[in-house]
Amino acid sequence: RILVTGAFGQIGSELINKLSDIYGQDNVIATDIKSGNYSGPFEKVDVTDGKRLYEVAKQYKVDTIMHLAALLSATAEKMPKRAWDINMGGLINALEVAKELDLQFFTPSSIGAFGPTTPKEHTPQDTIQRPTTMYGVNKVSGELLCDYYYYRFGVDTRGVRFPGLISYVTPPGGGTTDYAVEIYYEAIKQKSYTSYIKEGTYMDMMYMPDALTAIIQLMEANPDQLKHRNAFNISAISAAPEDFAKAIQVYIPEFTLEYDVDPVRQQIADSWPNCIDSTAAQEEWGFKAQYDLQAMTKDMLEKLAAKLK
Ligand code: VAH
């Protein structure tokens, strides 16, 4: 039985369906601060309420927690103290439940866990992590906290550093990489997009199906193979806004891209790597992304054309 926090966010809303397909919907307990579109078990849980989280995990006799509830990078910069309370308070509550009930534990880190002094090209699995955003501080702290719960208490914690995730089901909320999702919606709606991230800004990106597969593959991996735990670099695509425009123009030749840079989100993006190295994940648990920019663009435009009809 798996309890998912943040179940109606960008990752959660697709993860609960993927987990239901594999393990059966009765075994996937969705929790969030608001209800959403899911016909399986749902419980209203605010992850800053550790007692409530413990009670739900105990009531449903779960053996795994996938902790996704968090504020993303741009939102966290608007309300850093609140971001600390949710991102760190929620995380340690979830880790405590995993320790008390002996649960397997997943939570994502991010390329946001790196900062301006991190090598930007082929960023190594083990390297300098001095992020300059509250979100990044939360992600580095979260990685260290999850490793601590593994070494100190034996909790089976595992995580990945997600790139910007692109999906057509639930839009992300308050991220820096959200432009890479918006651009597809606007390409369908009005054949043009104004990017708040400037030309030539490279970041790691990944299509949601690859992200979901990575979570399940990592959680099912043989623990004896894992030299790392929190958290694995994984990436699929390194792209800048103009690369998305070129890929879209193959299907919508008249698509145009303009720029109106948002200095706050540009500064966050500039502090992150251009492309990270996924070798450790490939070697330790067989990570392999299926979607490149062209395949993702084809699928995104097809699915959105149907969704936005
Ligand atoms: C964000 N989508 O932009 C998230 C993610 C790597 C980016 O952490 O904050």
Percent helix range: 40-55%
Bound molecules: (3R)-3-hydroxy-L-norvaline
Distance between the termini: 37 Å
Tally of separate helices: 11
Instruction: Tell me the fraction of residues in β-strands, as a range.
Output: 15-25%
Q: What is the spatial order of strands in the main beta sheet? A: 3-2-1-4-5-8
How would the global form be characterised? globular
Task: Kindly describe this structure.
47% of the residues are buried. Helix 2 runs parallel beside helix 4 (80-101) and helix 8 (241-249) crosses helix 11. It is globular and about 55 Å long. Helix content is 43%, strand content 17%. The two termini are 37 Å apart. The model has no long low-confidence stretch (mean pLDDT 97). It has a 6-stranded parallel β-sheet. A 3-stranded parallel β-sheet has the order 6-9-13. With 309 residues, the chain is of the alpha/beta class. The chain has helices at 12-23, 50-59, 73-78, 80-101, 134-153, 179-190, 208-220, 241-249, 263-270, 279-285, 293-307; strands spanning 2-5, 28-32, 42-44, 64-67, 104-106, 109-110, 121-123, 157-158, 160-162, 164-166, 192-195, 203-207, 232-233, 237-239, 256-259, 275-276. Bound molecules: (3R)-3-hydroxy-L-norvaline. (3R)-3-hydroxy-L-norvaline is lined by residues 72-73, 110-112, 135, 162-165, 172, 175-177. Belongs to the NAD(P)-dependent epimerase/dehydratase family. One of its GO terms (molecular function) is L-threonine 3-dehydrogenase activity. This is L-threonine 3-dehydrogenase. Residues 2-234 form the NAD-dependent epimerase/dehydratase domain.
